[in-house]
Amino acid sequence: MPNFVTEYLNKFQGFWSDRTVSQRIMIGGLATTVVVAFILMVFWLNQTEYRVLYTKLYAEDASRVVSILQSTKEPYKIQDNGSTILVPADRVYDLRLKIAGEGALHGQGIGYEIFDTVQIGQTDFIQRINYQRALQGELARTISEFPQVERARVHLVLPAKSLFIEEQAEPTASVVLKLKEGEKLNDKQVKGVLNLVVMSVEGLKPSAVTITDMRGQVLYQPEDDALGLNISNSQLEYKAGLETKIEQRIQRLLMPIVGPDKVIAKVNAELDFRQRTIKTEAYDPDGQVARSEQTSEENTRGTANVDGGVPEANFRGDGFTGTATTQDSTRETRTTNYEINKEEQQIIVPVGELKRLSVAVVVDGTYEKNAETGEMTYVPRSEAEMQRIRDLVRSAVGYDEVRGDSLEVSNMTFGMQDMFGDEGLMRTMLEYAQRLGKPFLNGLLIFLFLILVVRPVVMALIKPRVAEEDIEEVAGLPEAGERLAIDDSDLDEEALDTARRLENAKAQALQLSEKNMDQAVQVLKTWLKQEAA
Q1: Per-residue model confidence as pLDDT tens digits over 432-441
Q2: Closest C-alpha to 354, from 277, 246, 248, 264
Q3: What pTM was computed for the model?
Q4: Which of 17, 86, 233, 276 has the most CB atoms within 10 Å of its CB?
Q5: Residues 6+ apart with CB under 8 A from 26
Q6: What is the CB-side half-sphere exposure of residue 428 using CA atoms within 13 A?
């Protein structure tokens, strides 16, 4: 064996023999921990790194992807109940392109890929059923892409077309949604699902669609106008939103004046949701203007025999006898057309017009401490202050007396002021505890780890060195060899440590007394005087 190896072994044996039992256990544990950590690190570095190939897969898609990986003998792992597939990191992109090229990912259910394989001899009934299945599957896949939807099922009823319009039945649809944990669809999203289904099916009307979730709760149902309830959910939401907005406006206005949590405002708004179109025509007779004028003149001239009669048949006279008259006549006609100013108006009244507004406001008073009893006493607000509050509220809500608006502002005690204060204090304390609790606990754990784990280890390593240095210093003093001549074999480890500390103290006291004899004598005299007293 080489000399340097022998030398190192001797040093290690000497070092090991000088250690106590607890020190040997600690050193062995540290060495074992380091070796195990090194082995685990090497194993972890040499382990194959897997990354996500696809996640959130449906059972059908996951089965097809696994079949492709098995056919190509690619290593893979399955997680999340089969919805996530992992492959080696250097094969992720190649396998994605390969699987996408083969068209293995279709989603849940059956879609239009059912027509990829043409089967000879299919009847019209089978073709119609396959089309209905494909349309249902495609709609379910599209709806499942919503962030809040985990799974969807669509059921369609597509009646056969009839030659007679009276006998033609309308299609209907039913949508069942499975929402993710803690998620919820708002009205706009439900409306989006409804429009998607209606626009995807020929002849389907919104009144023939229902949407429910897996728990049986109705998310959308057709509106029933048979009872005369023509108001829809959107109109109710608009009414509630308008009332809430006015209430918040009143509270924000009065809160700096009367204090927080000392004002309550409630508003009732009557809205007109009728669709009306008003047409008016107005004429101005004073503003007439001549548009056209037509004039016609007629002159007549004629002669007539007034006294003459009918001659006899046997008359043999010279000619016609009688008195002749001449007649002249003139007639003039004039027509004037006037244009009168005409004003036409077509007014479309907006839907949701405000008809009447009712506002109720309750304001808390003030509280003063009673000097005799020490209790808080309620003091109502003055009439002048209440009138100013009424004027502010009237201006804030747009009060219109002609419209029939009503306003009521009352001053009442809310009571339980101490409870409100304690609640706010507790809420503040909880907020600070949530903010500072985690850092405080982390710091406490670190402190306990340093005190209970790190400190004993460091002290166990440093203590033997300090003890050896002290013994060497004491051995250099006079008669130190005799003081340190103690049989260690007869004492246990704890007694040996106690004896060493006593000898170290005696040696140090002796050394100090030899250097400063005068001071040592003075100290002894003082001790003797104290004992005598």
Answers
A1: 776 776 677 7
A2: 246
A3: 0.43
A4: 86
A5: 457, 460
A6: 6
